[in-house]
Amino acid sequence: MTTPRIEVGPSKDATTAAIAAALSESIRAAQDARGTAHLVLTGGSMGGASLVGLQHPQVGPVDWSRVHLWWGDERFVPSGHPDRNETEAREALLDRLGLDPSMVHAMPATDGPDGDDVAAATTRYAAELAAHAADGHDVPAFDVLMLGVGPDAHIASLFPHHPAQRVTGAPTVAVEDSPKPPPVRISLTYPAINAARQVWFMVAGAEKADAVQAALATGADPWDTPASGAHGSQDTVWWLDAAAAARIR
Ligand SMILES: O=C(O)[C@H](O)[C@@H](O)[C@H](O)[C@H](O)COP(=O)(O)O
What we know:
9 strands; 18% strand; 6-phosphogluconolactonase_DevB; EC 3.1.1.31; hydrolase
């Protein structure tokens, strides 16, 4: 397990700018090493703002034709719905990139091939992940997996004291009673998240300071603070603004 690195910016804007710059560098490094990069996107305002930040002229160029895009979780609603993390990412960046659809691995929507059968859709996404994984693995070794963090320290759709957290035998889990609406979701599980080389938490705002402090506390239990259960195999980074970092001891 890697010791988390903490990067604090003076403001949310400064933090998302730093994330965007680091992301373009990590993508380039992954492509230099392995040809293609696997990037896992997140919903939430930090996820969207970081994708917007990638378009800043000071951020180095990214060869998007060699980036596989995945999602850490998704709200199970129709495609194009504003609640979908995919919709947010498309509006923030993806729709301007002319991407090859075969590189964009959005989680299924309720108007997809499985209709509103979330269990089948969850299994379908697991198969998509497996199709891009190395032999003997369930998921690709994601180069960077980004996570927003809720005020309850949830990540993806893994919530405190929710049984979805206990699923370890599959890379994906259906959540049918999320404590935060909308209730039906698909999430990566801890083993899938922790297969990533780099896990990046992206958090801003004073209302997240307690969650950040709890997740970074020695002996934190993921059952209570889900963010404490996610780690990259090579690097774990907490990208914070000053307000979110205020209570770290
Ligand atoms: O419905 C959800 O579960 C949220 O979208 C959540 O996953 C989000 O990513 C975090 O709450 C962080 O959100 P912010 O980046 O907006 O703080």
